[in-house]
Structures are given as C-alpha cells and as structure tokens.
Amino acid sequence: MTTADRPSLLLVEDDAVxxxxxxxxxDPDYRVQLVTNGRDxxxxxxxxxxxxxxxxxxxxxxxxxxxxxxxxxxxxxxxxLILTALGDAxxxxxxxDAGANDYVTKPFDAGELAARLxxxxxxxxxxxxxPVAIGDxxxxxxxRSVRSVYGHTVSLTAKEGQLLAAxxxxxxxxxxxxxxxxxxxxxxxxxxVIDTYVHHLRRKISKAVIRTVHGLGYQIGDAHE
Amino acid sequence: MTTADRPSLLLVEDDAVxxxxxxxxxDPDYRVQLVTNGRDxxxxxxxxxxxxxxxxxxxxxxxxxxxxxxxxxxxxxxxxLILTALGDAxxxxxxxDAGANDYVTKPFDAGELAARLxxxxxxxxxxxxxPVAIGDxxxxxxxRSVRSVYGHTVSLTAKEGQLLAAxxxxxxxxxxxxxxxxxxxxxxxxxxVIDTYVHHLRRKISKAVIRTVHGLGYQIGDAHE
DNA sequence: CCAGGCGTTTAAGAAACGCTTAAGAAAGTG
DNA sequence: CACTTTCTTAAGCGTTTCTTAAACGCCTGG
Lengths: 225, 225
Known about the structure:
The structure is a homodimer of 225-residue chains.
Chain A: E1 8-12, H1 18-26, E2 31-35, H2 38-47, E3 52-56, H3 64-73, E4 80-84, H4 89-98, E5 102-105, H5 110-123, E6 132-134, E7 137-140, E8 145-148, E9 153-155, H6 158-169, E10 174-176, H7 177-184, H8 192-204, E11 210-213, E12 217-220
Parallel strand pairs in A: 1-2, 1-3, 3-4, 4-5
Antiparallel strand pairs in A: 6-7, 7-8, 8-9, 10-12, 11-12
Helix pairs in contact in A: 2-3, 6-8
Chain A binds a DNA duplex (30 and 30 nucleotides) through helix 6 and helix 8.
C-alpha cells in the first residue's frame, strides 16, 4: 500500500451511468472506490479507512439516510457528502441531521462538488492508520518507526519501513525477492537490494524477527510453533 | 468565556433588514452577535471565541472572501458558513477555497440553514484554547511567544507561532510539509517555506524541540526514550 | 564430506533530502 | 510616506538514504 497518495473516497451511487461518471470526475484528486448499494456501502464504510464519502440519497437495499445513520452509530466520523436529486429543504434537513456534513443536489456543478470535498477533507484530517504488531515490536507506518514492547524506539528509513510492512502484512507467508521488489522498489533494482535491507532491519531490530527460507525468500513470524 | 449556554455565533451581514431578521431567526439556538461590515467582522472574529460564523459574501469595507482569508491566515479554525445572493458555481468555489466550510445562497430555507449550522457545530466540538507545553517551553495561547521554564521569554512571529502550535497540538504525530502548508500558509507557497520556519524556531528555542523525520516531515516530542 | 549455490555482510558511489543563508517582496507601523 | 518587521523564494552545501557490487561464510544435495 502506498502511503503518500491521493485521499481515499468511497462513492455510493446506484445509477449505472452517473456512478462511473462521478468516479472518473474525481479520479484525478481521489482514489475512488465505487459501490452501488447501501449494504456494500455500509460494509466498505465500516471496514475501510476513508478520507471522505459521497453517498447517494436514494439507494437500493439500504437507503442513503439509513446508511449514514448506521455509520455514525458505529462511531465512523469520516466526513460525508450527500449527492441527490431530492432537493427540497425537508430532505436536506433530514440528511444533515442524520450525520451528513454537506448536501449537494443534482444536477451539480463539478467544480463546486470538488470545492466542497476540499472543504470537508481540509477540516477533517485523515485518521492515523493503526500500528502493526510484529512479535515484540510495533510498527507505526505514519511515523516510520518501530517501538518494542518495553518502550525502546527505533526509527527506520522509508525503504526499511516499506519492506517490514510488506512482510508483516501477511505473517507466515513467504515472500520471494521478486515479489518484494515489484511492490516496493524500482523495477530496475537488483534482487540483492532486498538482502541488504533485511540485513539493516535485523541489525536495527532483532535477528529473530525476519526468517530466511533458503531458496525461496523471507518471512515474518508464524512458522510452525 | 463560553458558558454552558447556546453556542456563540458571529453574524456578519450588512443588509439592514436581513441582518436583524437572521439574528432573530437563529436566536433560539445561538447567542448571536451581529456586525455589519468586514472590518468589525475581522476584529470580532480574531478576538472572540466563536463556535461558528455566518458571513455575507458582499460586505462594505472588507469583502466576505477577503475576511475569511484573513481569519484563516491568522490561524482561526472556527467553522464558517457563507450566506449570499451570488449563487454561481465559480463564486462558491472561490468562497470554499478561501476557507469557508459551507455555502448557502439567498433566498434560503430557514430550516436548511439551521441544519447546516448544526452539521458544522456538530463536527467541530468547539476549540480548546489551552496553553501548550513543549518540552521545557510553554507556548502562550495567543501563539505569539514562548516562555522557558526558567522565565526567559522569546517572542515569535505569527507564522512561527502557528507552525509551532500546529506541531505541538499532536505531540508524536509526524506532519508532512504539505499538511502544515495547507493549514497555515497560502496555497501557493512552496513547501520549502516550512523548512525556513523550522530553522527559525530551532534557532529561537532549541534545536532539540522539533525533530526531522527524513522523507516525511516534522514532529514534536514523543520519540526518544 | 565437499562443492556449488545461496545468503550475509561491508563498503562506497550516486541520488535524494534537508539545512542554512541571503536577499527581495509584502505587510505592518508610526 | 518612509521605516521596520515579517514573509517567501531560491541556491549552495552538507547529510542521509538508496543501490550496486564484491568478498566472505553457511547451507544442502550428492
């Protein structure tokens, strides 16, 4: 997962034409995930770490208002913008009071939508991703450092952090050098780079954290204990 | 300051009829202070502790957009709603990008305005103007000076104070240059400005206060144990 | 047990990044 | 309006990080 990318946006829109259109419209500025009904919206909204959500008022399976109320009741504080054809004042009041932060009616101006999204993301800084546990250590991706269970903190470089995060993402799985290379380094790099960074990590953290699988690659934790 | 009463609302509206009308409309839910020009708006906005502001787009003495930009550049983060007759998309974009959080066009529905204000005040649970401790230093709430534990006082410029306050607001968190830039400087500024102010702060206060995280940004406190 | 492959460790050049300085532009002040 | 302070840009230089490469040691199959 790349960290310093565009903000992530969850778009819940059932219209088969409008959905992809809006997604494309927002694509230059956001990493857009499009889902087409309320149930999927709820699932993604609860499980993903979104910077902002755009939700259609009228949705199949689960209504937009109900979706927002459900998300808010679960403690999701992500800014939400309602996008809908229903423009009368009572509808707006109901949507905003359900927990939405803004309300835009179709037809909408693309620039205005973008500006309103900017205003929302500006005031709600993205929540920090959760730290990853690795044996006796804890990796904080936002800070690029690992802290041992007894308070000692070691700071990592960008590549060291990416490599460690990649391995820790699926404990027990063996990653080949080529997999790691393709995901986090330049395509032109030699597979030997990985060895070098594994060495750096072992020196900084502890030798036992990363295990070598001879002839295959590297692995973290969870072998057969 | 703020009692456990209704939230405080600063209304900047020059129309002699509409101003008192809106004030009366909002009176059941807010403690409304009405001023009728941009200069007074700026003065009240800077000196008072407001929960939310409603600002007219077209104002005598100082334009609404200019007023908002001025408030934001001084570090005022209070939610702002623009209320205006100018409804075309470009105007909205300009207003929102100047730092407003919402934009309502006249004629407006009273219930919708109230709902949008609720959405704004709900999401911003009122600022906490507490003095901030930074290592051996204490940052004055006015953000214009720091005092060391042994009485020595150093005065800061506005930007220096804002930068330090931003970093100190979340000790341990790493802020990227872009985050700091977006929050407290003009959008057109180069990220390098941050480096310059970090240098100024380190010279005025002490080198150890602000930590560099290579490739990411800057951080205060909470890293070396 | 030996040989060849594979992994580990070091070192060093290249590239990216941050620090510092200086100077012009803008804003504030009397 | 002139003066001072503050803000912003840009460029040179030093440091950290990235990548390559080569020497050395360990593992595994025959």
